[in-house]
Write a structure and sequence with these properties.
Elements: H1 2-15, H2 37-72, H3 76-102, H4 107-120, H5 126-142, H6 148-155, H7 161-187, H8 198-219, H9 225-230, H10 243-271, H11 274-291, H12 299-311, H13 330-358, H14 364-397, H15 405-421
Length: 422
């Protein structure tokens, strides 16, 4: 079954002239498309893949390091949550694989496979690492013309490791950022974020870079619920943004995420459990919006809709939107930006009011100090949000790069070699 699945995926990938990018910025729409084939292969399969692998590994390593530090400091609850989040993507992937496996197997075979899947989820985070190392190795070999045809087949072979990376970004990196900022804000509730350890800053930075890069790589694809259900997120469409525009989009989402996580951590630091109410309302609004135009609501789709609602807490991705909503590309992002701006402002006002009431009984000198700190945090929030808004406008103002004759010639050359070798 797996071989037939991979063969059909590889055939569709070749027919659509697509390749496995996984966040890589080098394809027919990239600025380096005028480079020789060797240069394109080097940038796409070695440089970009190595950067993605570095971010993925460092995100996991810093999460585990911070968990160990929390345990040594006696924060067993935070240590356990941090460590649990590291294994959450693998567990969710196993749940997804089990639903697919049980639908095609029954009896003893299904039970034995289910046990193997459950035993394997702690080591599943290593799978994308092995996959990337394998592709980097084949990428080096593909630089030699005599071996290029054979190696491109290995490089373009479909895999579901992208789905695991996608889950890692939104179910590990994003919650880790929020959890860490929440813990930092609890140290001095009257002066949030005034005491940040070096390792915590490193962890938050790598998690933020991982999440932003995954938003951009998914932003350039037309993702549907069926692709998620079938595990076909790796079957990418070619990227449509030049390198310079990808940088603008990266700055756009990084700034938005900084503003989003800051206000959520401040709100949670003052009102604690009330943040779950905000998250629940947001998830339900997105869930209802996605089910409006869908007539079939199977159990798997319901879970997918709830998961995408959770994803939309942090970023907007065009799940099922291009086929449902016939509007300009920038319109849904504008609606999402307005929604997030309203939510952030409400949480910021509630936090400001609670902090002001909390410090009202203190001496005037301390009140002035705390008021200045609050104003700085508000300035950081709206500064980051406005920066993201400017980057978003700049991203949509830049036109998508059209393929030139030379672009098509080089792309066709790489595709032809892959098809012939297969």
């Amino acid at each position: 079954m797996k071989e037939a699945w991979e063969e059909s995926r590889l055939t569709r990938s070749s027919r659509a002239q697509t390749e496995d990018n996984d966040g890589c910025c080098c394809d027919s729409s990239c600025c380096c498309c005028c480079c020789p084939t060797e240069c394109r292969i080097f940038i796409k399969y070695i440089v970009c893949r190595s950067l993605g692998l570095f971010l993925y590994v460092m995100d996991i390593v810093t999460d585990i390091t911070v968990s160990v530090a929390d345990y040594r400091n006696g924060d067993i609850t935070f240590a356990a949550i941090n460590l649990g989040l590291v294994f959450t993507p693998g567990f969710l992937y196993v749940m997804f694989a089990l639903t697919e496996m049980l639908s095609s197997n029954t009896g003893i075979l299904a039970c034995s496979k289910a046990v193997l899947w459950f035993l394997s989820f702690p080591i599943l985070p290593l799978w994308p690492i092995c996959r990337d190392l394998q592709k980097i190795y084949h990428g080096f070999l593909a630089l030699f013309p005599s071996r290029r045809q054979e190696q491109l087949v290995h490089l373009n072979r479909p895999t579901r490791s992208y789905l695991l990376k996608f889950l890692e970004a939104f179910t590990e990196a994003a919650p880790q950022i929020l959890l860490r900022l929440y813990k930092i804000s609890l140290r001095r509730q009257e002066l949030p974020f005034s005491k940040i350890e070096t390792m915590e800053a490193v962890q938050v930075s790598f998690s933020l870079l991982t999440l932003s890069s995954k938003v951009i790589s998914t932003y350039q694809k037309s993702v549907t619920t069926q692709q998620i259900i079938e595990g076909e997120l790796e079957d990418n469409e070619k990227f449509t943004l030049p390198c310079c525009v990808q940088i603008l989009a990266f700055l756009w989402w990084t700034s938005f995420l900084v503003a989003r996580f800051e206000v959520m951590a401040l709100f949670a630091g003052s009102l604690h459990g009330w943040l779950f109410l905000v998250i629940a309302v947001h998830v339900m609004l997105v869930f209802l919006f996605q089910t409006v135009a869908s007539h079939k609501h199977g159990l798997r789709k319901v879970f997918i809709y709830l998961f995408t609602g959770f994803v939309f807490i942090f970023a907007y991705l065009e799940f099922n939107m291009k086929s449902r909503i016939k509007v300009a590309t920038w319109f849904p992002y504008t609606v999402y930006t307005v929604l997030v701006f309203i939510e952030n402002s409400i949480m910021l006002v509630v936090w400001f009011s609670s902090q002001k009431a909390y410090t009202s009984t203190l001496p005037e000198e301390e009140q002035a100090l705390y008021a200045t700190h609050r104003e700085r945090l508000i300035f950081v929030h709206y500064g980051a949000f406005c920066c993201g808004l400017i980057m978003m406008i700049a991203t949509f103002c830049c036109p998508e790069r059209k393929q030139s004759a030379k672009d098509k010639e080089v792309t066709e050359e790489m595709r032809h070699m892959s098809v012939v070798a297969s």
